[in-house]
Amino acid sequence: MTETIQKRINDSKAMRWTALILIALMMFFGYMFVDVMSPLQSLVEQERGWSPSVFGTYAASEYLLNVFGFLIIAGVILDKCGIRFTGELSASMMFIGAAIKFYAVSDWFPGTGLATWLDSWWITMPASAKLASFGFMIFGCGCEMAGTTVSKAIAKWFKGKEMALAMGLEMAIARVGVFAIFSISPILAEKMGSIAAPVGFCTALVFIGLITYTVFTFMDRKLDAQLGADGSNETSDEEFKVADLKNILTSQIFWVVALLCVLYYSAIFPFQRYGANMLQCNLDGISPAAASNIFRWFPIGAAVITPFLGSFLDHKGKGATMLMWGAILLIACHLIFAFVLPATHSHVIAYSTIVLLGISFALVPAALWPSVPKIIDEKVLGSAYCLIFWVQNIGLCFVPMLIGSVLASSNANNPAVIAAKEAGDEFIPYNYTMPLVIFACFGVAALILAIYLKAIDRKNHFGLEEPNIKA
Ligand SMILES: NCCCC[C@H](N)C(=O)NCC(=O)O
């Protein structure tokens, strides 16, 4: 009897990479929306009266609902309802949140009954900021849930294939989105004479992301038909039960990975918010544009290198070792920024350290996310990703506030800062040593966890050092 081996849709290189592009586009547009207002801080202050602390509250709102438990629910939804439903839900939440934020910063909002009511309480926070934060909170829930859904979708479509390369490419595409919006947003705002223009533009892009993900769901339906699954819990024979969460939460290796993740990312994304200003302060007050020009090599450097490291991981392995090197580079870079740059004011050192940090930012994500399917049972993979993001979001929500207050308190008696404030200067030459030392300490803790992770992997054979593609 001859047995025909049926080829699945994801066995075709063209089809699985098309699927990756479709889902990565949703994240690309999502990451663009996240940072659309980051380069417009002073403009938002002028146009809408958002003080720096209002801006900080607005930025934290992205993570607020996630921290208060939404991401845990998101994990259950993902494992119970599957990647198609959860992806559509995430993309829709991203669009609804984006549309609310667009309305909040548009010229249609001031003067409405809602604006008058929102202005009547917590008066230091303008109505536009309150509504924009509400929208951003809904968007943030959708965006983080989308991030975990995309990881689970890639693990499904690329299992035993180029999984790490695919995850690396997806993250690289998202980072190009950050780079792109940092360049486009100020131009759009200036040309259209309003901050609402770039926000509206990105809201439209988020809608396109919803469409591209919808196209992907048709492909995924076909894959499920070939796998013989019903699509609710596509990759596993056993049904997901909420009680399975207990297995994740009591797993030692899960906590090592989750803590490593929060510590590492707490020294990356919050640093991203202060990085350009830190360079300005340490390079004799260069212009904000010149500082951004140096700083943008950080996400773009990571975007270029991540896919190569992903491919290396697929073919050669060494995931745990890559995590260790990522943490070592992180520590070295923050210490150079803290002690060497203020002493030398060297542009060469600034550029090289930014590039080194970009390599670190490629090493850790490229190794971390593809390692999760190796340590966690497939049927609870969605919940595991969501729980890791949940722990990470706690750091991303609170560390910027910690850094902001340390920066303020460590400069309270700084004569240069006092003089600049008294003179009403636009540029305040802050000393960033203390915040940078805190970032380096996060790196040291992440390194200890990476070493421990490598040790427990060696003992328990999780395969973190093994390649994904077995010859
Ligand atoms: N403001 C963007 C934060 C994205 C956080 C997200 N949970 C994440 O870790 N994504 C993976 C990455 O490396 O970007």
UniProtKB/TrEMBL annotation:
<feature type="transmembrane region" description="Helical">
    <location>
        <begin position="14"/>
        <end position="34"/>
    </location>
</feature>
<keyword id="KW-1133">Transmembrane helix</keyword>
<dbReference type="InterPro" id="IPR011701">
    <property type="entry name" value="MFS"/>
</dbReference>
<feature type="transmembrane region" description="Helical">
    <location>
        <begin position="89"/>
        <end position="109"/>
    </location>
</feature>
<dbReference type="Pfam" id="PF07690">
    <property type="entry name" value="MFS_1"/>
</dbReference>
<keyword id="KW-0472">Membrane</keyword>
<feature type="transmembrane region" description="Helical">
    <location>
        <begin position="348"/>
        <end position="368"/>
    </location>
</feature>
<keyword id="KW-0813">Transport</keyword>
<feature type="transmembrane region" description="Helical">
    <location>
        <begin position="432"/>
        <end position="453"/>
    </location>
</feature>
<dbReference type="InterPro" id="IPR036259">
    <property type="entry name" value="MFS_trans_sf"/>
</dbReference>
<keyword id="KW-0458">Lysosome</keyword>
<feature type="transmembrane region" description="Helical">
    <location>
        <begin position="195"/>
        <end position="216"/>
    </location>
</feature>
<protein>
    <recommendedName>
        <fullName>Lysosomal dipeptide transporter MFSD1</fullName>
    </recommendedName>
</protein>
<comment type="subunit">
    <text>Homodimer. Interacts with lysosomal protein GLMP (via lumenal domain); the interaction starts while both proteins are still in the endoplasmic reticulum and is required for stabilization of MFSD1 in lysosomes but has no direct effect on its targeting to lysosomes or transporter activity.</text>
</comment>
<keyword id="KW-0812">Transmembrane</keyword>
<comment type="function">
    <text>Lysosomal dipeptide uniporter that selectively exports lysine, arginine or histidine-containing dipeptides with a net positive charge from the lysosome lumen into the cytosol. Could play a role in a specific type of protein O-glycosylation indirectly regulating macrophages migration and tissue invasion. Also essential for liver homeostasis.</text>
</comment>
<feature type="transmembrane region" description="Helical">
    <location>
        <begin position="380"/>
        <end position="403"/>
    </location>
</feature>
<feature type="transmembrane region" description="Helical">
    <location>
        <begin position="253"/>
        <end position="274"/>
    </location>
</feature>
<feature type="transmembrane region" description="Helical">
    <location>
        <begin position="121"/>
        <end position="143"/>
    </location>
</feature>
<dbReference type="InterPro" id="IPR052187">
    <property type="entry name" value="MFSD1"/>
</dbReference>
<feature type="transmembrane region" description="Helical">
    <location>
        <begin position="320"/>
        <end position="342"/>
    </location>
</feature>
<comment type="similarity">
    <text>Belongs to the major facilitator superfamily.</text>
</comment>
<feature type="transmembrane region" description="Helical">
    <location>
        <begin position="294"/>
        <end position="313"/>
    </location>
</feature>
<feature type="transmembrane region" description="Helical">
    <location>
        <begin position="164"/>
        <end position="189"/>
    </location>
</feature>
<feature type="transmembrane region" description="Helical">
    <location>
        <begin position="54"/>
        <end position="77"/>
    </location>
</feature>
